[in-house]
Amino acid sequence: MNGDLEEIWVYLSASPLLALTLTLVAYQLGLWLYKKAGSNPLFNPVLFAVCAIVLLLTITGTDYATYFEGAQFVHFLLGPATVALAIPLYQQLHQVRRSLLAILVAVSCGSITAAASAIAIGWVMGASSTTLLSLAPKSATTPVAMGISEQVGGLPSLTAVAVILTGIIGAMAGKGLLGLLGITDARATGIAMGVASHGIGTAQALQISSVAGAFSGLAMGLNALATAVIIPLLVRLWF
Amino acid sequence: MVGFFIVLLLCQLAGEVIVIASGAPLPGPVIGMALLFIGLLVKGSVPPTLGELSNGLLSHLSLLFVPAGVGVMLHAELLGNEILPIAVSLVISTLVTLVITAWIMQRLGARGGADQ
Fold first, then answer.
1. Cβ contact, residue pair A170, B94, below 8 Å
2. What is the DSSP string of chain A?
């Protein structure tokens, strides 16, 4: 009997089906909790799913590469989904056009704030300069942030961790923090979440409203560009 | 539906090719988003099926970040003894960025008047 179970486990753990199912189930559970909590952003379904899966992989001694063989099918859809952000953006075209200047100024200032504050706070807290360089691009979307990190002498893999954590922090805090400060404008909330927390912030902004989602997706794209320009300049000034 | 999924893939593919050819500091999908946006401007409307497809993909955008998020476990030891400065920096910096960006956007954008 035990031998049979082990054989089944060996078979399943080698097939992508298990990791794929695990990813969807963990997310669905996270989503259920989020809805149960009255769509409170603090019950972030990504955070829940990631923690649950990491825990399970650690307990079963499964490495990330094996997990990713199945999870890559979900991961792959990130590309087409990013392209699809053009549709809410187009649907909000008249609003975007009307506040284009405000968007460009807000994204540029936000981009500088994200990088400069990460470096300054890390420096005050005594982080090494390699760590500071790795944290600087954390608000840009992952591939851009990793590229910049490598270019300025950071550790791209540490940057990847910082980017994901930044996304989750912004998604959890965004709406509540801004509401507390009396900022309820969907455009302002969307732009802020896209600049501070890239795609994970945008995913949360889409839950707020289609206006917030459209502005967030736009801000994510513009911020990727702004970060790529600003960080090398900032690094030259600081280091 | 399949036809419009092909549209998304083609935009992404064209984006990746543009990035490789030009060395632009942007991910291929972001260029793909710009290309699809231009395409919609030219066409003048969103085909209903494309709208449904994008709704389906975007309503669970969070899910798509889970595999990359689990990747954090690979690099957890990188956080090592600098975990405190890193955590403090990420949390405060993200909150400050949210507030400053939203504040500027609200101040400058208010003149345009919002359709809530």
1. yes
2. -HHHHHHHHHHHHTSHHHHHHHHHHHHHHHHHHHHHTTS-TTS-HHHHHHHHHHHHHHHHT--HHHHHHHHHHHHHTHHHHHHHTHHHHHHTHHHHHHTHHHHHHHHHHHHHHHHHHHHHHHHHTT--HHHHHHHTTTTS-HHHHHHHHHHHT--HHHHHHHHHHHHHHHHHHHHHHHHHTT---HHHHHHHHHHHHHHHHHHHHHHH-HHHHHHHHHHHHHHHHHHHHHHHHHHHHH-
Query: Does B116 map to a domain?
Result: no
Tell me whether residue B68 is in a domain: no
Which of B62, B72, B83, B103 is best to mutate for the A interface (most A CBs within 10 A)?
B62
pLDDT digits (tens, 9 = 90+) for B29-61: 989 999 999 999 999 999 999 999 999 999 889
Measured between beta carbons, the chain A residues lying within 8 angstroms of B79 are: 158, 161
Asked if B81 reaches chain A (Cβ–Cβ under 8 Å), the answer is: no
Tell me which residue in B30, B36, B96 faces A224 most closely, judged by beta carbons: B30
B4 & B52 share domain: yes
Residue B83 and residue B56 share a domain: no
Q: Dump pLDDT digits (tens) for A16-35.
A: 899 999 999 999 999 999 99
- Kindly state whether B61 is in contact with chain A, defined as any CB-CB distance less than 8 angstroms: yes
Looking at the structure of chain B, the number of domains it has is 2
For residue B51, the enclosing domain spans 1-61
Encode pLDDT of A56-99 as tens digits. Answer: 999 999 889 999 999 999 999 989 999 999 999 999 998 899 99
Distance in Å, alpha carbon of B1 to nearest chain A alpha carbon: 13
Cβ–Cβ contact B88 with A under 8 A: yes
Assess if residue B101 is contained within a domain. yes
**Residue B36 resides in a domain:** yes
Whether residue B90 sits in one domain with residue B55? no
Instruction: Tell me, yes or no, if B3 comes closer than 8 A to chain A by beta carbon.
Output: no
- Model pTM score: 0.89
